[in-house]
Amino acid sequence: MHSKKTNVLFITSDQQHWYSMGFLNPEVNTPNLDRLAKMGTYFDRAYTVNPTCTPTRASLITGMYPSQHGAYSLGTKLPESVPTVGDSFREGGYRTGLVGKAHFQPLASTQEFPSLESYPILHDLDFWRHFKEPFYGFERAELARNHTDEAHAGQHYAIWMEEKGYDNWRDYFLHRDGETKHVRPEPGQAWEIPEEIHYNAWIAERTNALMEEFNANDDSFFLWASFFDPHPAYMVPEPYASMYDPADVTVPEMVPGEFDDKPPHFALTQEREGDWSAYKTDEGSNAIHGAGSHLKSREEKAKNIATMYGMMTMMDTYIGVILDKLDALGLTQNTLVLFASDHGDFLGQHGLVHKAIHHYEDLVKVPLIASMPGVIPQDTRSSALQSLVDVAPTVLSFAGLPVPRVMTGLDMKSEWMGETDALRDHVIVENRHNPTTMFMKTYVEERYKMTLHFKQSYGEIYDLQEDPGEYKNLWDLPEHQELKKDLLLKFMYADMAIEPMPMPRISGA
Ligand SMILES: [Ca+2]
User: Fold this and answer.
1) For position 282, what pLDDT does the model report?
2) 273 C-alpha vs ligand 1 centroid, how far in Å?
3) Which of 20, 85, 255, 276 has its CA 20 to 30 A from that of 262?
């Protein structure tokens, strides 16, 4: 009776600010995400484990923190030896698939650290046509690596575009050597790519095809539809490009003086040519995402937000295509549908744009919706703390499969079912961008939030209850030194608690 087992359909966006969904923000239309939230529970205090792609994506499939699974920063890879949630599902008799963005490996490859998601193999379509091995536990991995028009477009996505008759697909993307017909649209301008070959259409079509195939064989499945939007550079084809008028969107603004009590890398963002050299001292230092000028005109921010809304509405349309297929196959009742983003985004909040190295709620909080009619409470909003490190153990638990001991995330099934109270009293957000610089760790509990900056004299403490905008840093204030001591102790205990215990003690010695 395979079909009675619980399927898991995991849908993710990339770099989505939690507020960009219609049921939270009337400026944007996302009817299908609204429908999913109504069908299930929306968690308004869900946190990433790292505000960048690779570390968090590796945590999503391993149930471990970036400091544990090895892919601690962008430009690193998840070692193939680390067990994944897909491995567990396969051992449990499930079919597994991933369509869209993986980013478990870096864009560069070395002999010691080979990467399949790197040049020139990304563009070797023959290689990908014959690629049949499981990829990190996904027996069917259909991949791409580009955000919007990036030159990384290739792999299965490019093969699919050619199958659709678009041998000229390169005309819609940048080229690495600069030779391209495509000119990146200015903020607010439409991307000329035909909607029928946009990667949203590809992800929906291939996700649905895999669901159909698995269902036809009466196989249960764990399937990840991994969307690329609304990650910058913000661009979207018509009709979505002109769906939202920049004049009608709210543009978040910085509060004058708000960086006065913050670590120095906050104020540096407001300089045209800030000196970031102090953060690029490590051997092997690579780009630090967000270490640069964040100055953009209000007009450009408004255009970007309007485009981002268009990207959300377009992605939502194709999420709807997948949810409709799930319904049409009669699988909605026995499928856990989980929607999340890998981390947040700045659209002008605190004077910041895109990804950054500033652990505001805008960046470290993520949208999270869990739906399974009859199992997870419907039309419910929960403010209990959630972490993306819990996704792997929790989906295994919903499928009735054992959670491997190496997973240090928590099994949240009983809480998501409304059977237990909050299982978490804190979450941890890691960020080791370079070995010693931009190396920070954040502890968030119900009320307070603390960020430690490795071997720096400064730090951050915010009272999220009294100061949800995180404007007042309590770290140095004499009246809050007891609070600081208390939080440091709790942070240390939290860090001890996540030490992995791969096996039980099976004897006295
Ligand atoms: Ca990301």
Assistant:
1) 80
2) 26
3) 20
Backbone phi and psi for residue 450, each to the nearest 5 degrees, phi listed first: -125, 135
* Distance in angstroms (rounded) separating the CA atoms of residues 52 and 230: 14
Query: What's the pTM value of the predicted model, to 2 decimals?
Result: 0.97
| pLDDT tens figures, 12-62 | 999 999 999 999 999 999 999 999 999 999 999 999 999 999 999 999 999
Q: For residue 343, how far is its CA from the centre of ligand 1 (angstroms)?
A: 6
Sheet holding 459-463, edge to edge: 426-432, 439-445, 448-453, 459-463
Determine the Cα–Cα distance for residues 200 and 230; give it in Å rounded to an integer. Answer: 11
CA of residue 424 to ligand 1 center, whole Å? 24
In the chain, what are the domains? 2-253+294-424 (3.40.720.10)
| C-alpha of residue 234 to centroid of ligand 1, in Å | 14
How many angstroms is it from 98 CA to the middle of ligand 1?
16
Higher-confidence position of 163 and 437: 163
Pair 364, 47: CB distance under 8 Å:
yes
**Percent of the chain scoring above 90 in pLDDT:** 95
Residue 1 has pLDDT above 50, yes or no: no
Calpha distance 195→187 (Å, rounded): 19
